[in-house]
Structure formats: C-alpha cells, structure tokens
Write a structure and sequence with these properties.
The protein is built from 11 helices and 4 strands. The longest helix is centred in the middle third of the chain and has 17 residues. The model has no long low-confidence stretch (mean pLDDT about 95). The chain has a 4-stranded antiparallel beta sheet, with helices on both faces. The structure holds guanosine-5'-diphosphate and magnesium ion (MG).
Length: about 200
C-alpha cells in the first residue's frame, strides 16, 4: 500500500461532563494513545450553551433522526409520548431532545481534544462505541463504563449520558475542530511508533 492511499485524518473528541466528573479522562486518553493515535490539542473547557448549540447539527435531517429514535424507544416500551413529553410530533421531539443535550453538555467542564492519525475519525468512533451505552460493545468506552439507555434517559427527561463525543465524519470533524480550537493550538510532532505502525 502506498502512503497516498492511507488516510491521515484529524478528528474532534470530547470527554463529556459525566466522563470528567467520573474521573475517566485519564482512562480515555490512555485508550487513544494505546491505539497509536496522536493527541495534538487537549484542554478543559466549560462550554457555553451557544457553543454547544453551534457544535451539534440543527438541520431538519438531524432533528428528525433524533426525534424518530426517541419515538421508537417510546413505542418499544408502550409509552405514550404525548403523555410523557406533551407531543408525538417527530420534529418537536427532536428539538426537545436537542435542548436536553444542551443541558447535559453545559452541566460541567468537558475535556476537548483533537486527535490525529490514520483513519482517526473511524478509529475514535470505534473506541467510543455506539451511541447507546446499553447496546455498546464491551471493550468500547461507552460499553465498558456505562449502561445508560434511551428509556432511562427519556424517563428522566434528559439526554443519554454516554461519556464521550466524537465526530462522525470529515465534515463534522472540520466544523468541530474549527469551533473549539484556534489553529495555533494544534500541535505537530511525530510519535516514535509512526515508522512502525504506518
Ligand atoms: P453520537 O454521535 O453517537 O453522540 O450520537 P448522535 O449524534 O445521534 O446524538 C448526540 C447525542 O444526543 C448522543 O451522544 C446522546 O447524548 C444524545 N442522544 C442521541 N439520541 C438520543 C435519544 O434518542 N434520546 C436521548 N434522550 N438522547 C439522545
Ligand atoms: Mg453525533
């Protein structure tokens, strides 16, 4: 394989407020470094609501995706969404969950990071595990350190507490890195294993 085929990427990751408060930042950083990925920026921040509002998408497609997921959880547990949160409209529910997400992400400090490496975006998503901790693979951060579920979250009118955020694709990564860091704060260095692992 030639070097040009390899995808050196940058991605954005956050240890969410529950991860910081549970003292998991070190464990999460350990897993990133163990995988051969390089942390090129890292700092603690207390996000403002407006920053989190810019961080998460708010297009109709994303809102509908979250609304649909939430509605299907209610259906699975035979819960009437109108009784529970006052509406069964997909978009309204999507917007309500987004507000819960803003509450969650501003509930305490977060550790924000930029991570670089070959296939960094997919690798970091894999390290995190799937969105719902109850369903996340054992061995992933969400699977190993949480058992939160959509129904537990919805019953408490809150976002799913899943310890970490990671960009899903290159567009999200570019948007999020730019939002959270100045380019002067992104550092460049070589890890000694790079010659062996790439
Ligand atoms: P991620 O990329 O895996 O973090 O998942 P999404 O981008 O779909 O959602 C963003 C965040 O919103 C998740 O990490 C959860 O904290 C929260 N969330 C997503 N879906 C739901 C849901 O159906 N119900 C609730 N209560 N929270 C959700
Ligand atoms: Mg996402």
């Amino acid at each position: 394989m030639t070097k040009s085929v390899l995808r050196e990427e940058r991605t954005f990751m956050m240890v969410k407020p529950d991860g910081v408060r549970r003292g998991l930042a070190g464990e999460i950083i350990r897993r990133i470094e163990q995988r051969g990925l390089k942390i090129i920026a890292c700092s603690l921040a207390a996000p403002k609501r407006a920053e989190i509002d810019k961080h998460y998408p708010k297009d109709a497609k994303w809102i509908r995706r979250v609304g649909e997921k939430t509605l299907s959880t209610f259906a699975q547990y035979n819960i009437n969404p109108k009784k529970e949160i006052g509406t069964d409209d997909i978009e309204k529910i999507g917007r309500i969950v987004r507000e819960w997400l803003l509450d969650y992400m501003t509930s305490g400090p977060v550790l924000k990071m930029v991570i670089e490496g070959v296939h960094a975006i997919d690798m970091v998503r894999k390290l995190c595990g799937t969105t719902i901790p109850l369903a996340a693979e054992l061995g992933s951060i969400r699977g190993d350190f949480s058992a939160d579920s959509p129904i537990a979250a919805q019953s408490a009118m809150r976002a799913i507490h899943n310890l970490v955020h990671a960009s899903e694709n290159i567009d999200e990564a570019n948007h999020e890195i730019k939002l959270w860091f100045k380019s002067a704060d992104l550092h460049s260095y070589r890890r000694v294993e790079e010659e062996l692992m790439i």
